[in-house]
Amino acid sequence: MSGTEANGTDPQELPKGWAWATVADVGDVELGRARHPDWHTGPEMRSYLRVANVFEDRIDATDLKEMDFSGVFDKYRLEPGDVLLNEGQSPHLVGRPAIYRGVPADVAFTNSLIRFRANTGVLQEWALLVFRRHMHFGRFMREVRITTNIAHLSATRLKTVEFPIPPTAEQRRIVDAMKVHLARLDAIEAKLSAALGRLDRLELAVMSAAATGLLDPDGQRTSSAIPSRAGVGDGQLPDTAVGWVWKRLDDIADVVGGVTKDSKRQSDLGTPEVPYLRVANAQRARLDLDHVTKIRVAEKVVDKLRLRDGDVLMAEGGDRDKLGRGWIWEDQLPDCIHQNHLFRARLRDDATHPKLLAWYVNSAARAWFESNGKQSVNLASISISKVKLLPVPIPPPELQVAAIKAGEQALARVTQLTERCRAALAHNTALRRALLADAFAGRLVSQDPADEPAEELLERIRAEREAREVERKAIRRAARAKADSRPTAPPPPPIHTTSAVDAIGEQVALPLEFSA
Question: What is the pTM of this model?
Answer without folding.
Answer: 0.78
